[in-house]
Amino acid sequence: MMGQSAQHKTKQIAPGVRLLYGIDDFECCIYLVEGSERALLIDTGCGFNDLKFEVDHLTDLSYDVVVTHGHCDHAGATCMFPKVHMARGAVGDADAAVDMNRPAIGDGRWQVMKEAEACHPSERAFVSDGFEFELGGKTLEVIENPGHTAGDISLLDKQDRILFCGDCLVQAMDVLLVVPTALTVRQYLTSMEKLLERAGEFDRICSGHDKDTLPPTFLEGAVEAARGIVSGKEPGNPAELPPVFGGIEALRAKAVNTSILYNPEKIG
Ligand SMILES: [Zn+2]
Predict the structure, then answer these.
(1) Ligand 1 centre from 37 Cα, in Å?
(2) Which of 7, 177, 230, 264 has its CA 20 to 30 A from that of 19?
(3) 147: CA distance to ligand 1 center in Å?
């Protein structure tokens, strides 16, 4: 049993939709969506604290857990939950997540997480395009949009007209196509064009790292920037990358408010 520690702050996005944030800037934005019958936890953060304890106290409803992709700041705490939904393509990153978090969460906390993972490995339920979480009065549809990683999904909350998109659209930082498991810019573009086809169904975007919602024009910017890269017309400018990205000579391309950091050898 993990002990309770510092708690997330919460912010109401819409009736029954809350953002959990604030443990550490590195950690992703976590969302709790409640219907009349069930709830859905979108992403789990790093495991800086006992998220399950918190969520169990935030809602009286039974809830499912889903991760938008397997990165350690989103899927680091999946081992706290008995069952976690994800795309099949997220498994590799999710398997590595707790170990990746060791420097961020510290050796003591890491040890606790590893023991939890070993004692109670989460069951994984794989979701793909069209899968729906029925919460009672709210339905969230899974849309696969690989690019930032091979296992990226978004969740479309049809009643609240919100798209929860993980890291495929983010303003607080660049859209990172330079992470080791990123796909090509062309594959990212295909996914963003697929989301753009659904743009009539949402008014707001909840990203994995922005405490404020983003307007749909942000998605248009991502498509425009990615098209500029793929066509070669707007390749962007050289960008400094921290050593963690392995010495890639990256470029940064911008359109509207969106900026994409990418590897010019992985345009596709
Ligand atoms: Zn990510």
Answers:
(1) 30
(2) 177
(3) 10
